[in-house]
Amino acid sequence: MGAEEPLVLVVRVPKSGSKSLSRLAAEAFADRPQHYVPDTMRREALISRWQAFRLRRSQTQNLMKRYGTASLPAALAKIEAAARPGDLLIGGHADYATMRDGLSRPVRFVTLLREPGERARSDYNYARAGYLRRRPWQRFDSHIAAKIAGRFDFEGFLSYQLQHPQAFADLASAYVGWTPGADLEAHLAASLWDWGVLEESEAFARRVSERVGKPLVFGRSNTTGQVEQLDISAAERRLVDRLYARDLELYERARKPA
Question: What is the reported pTM?
Answer without folding.
Answer: 0.93
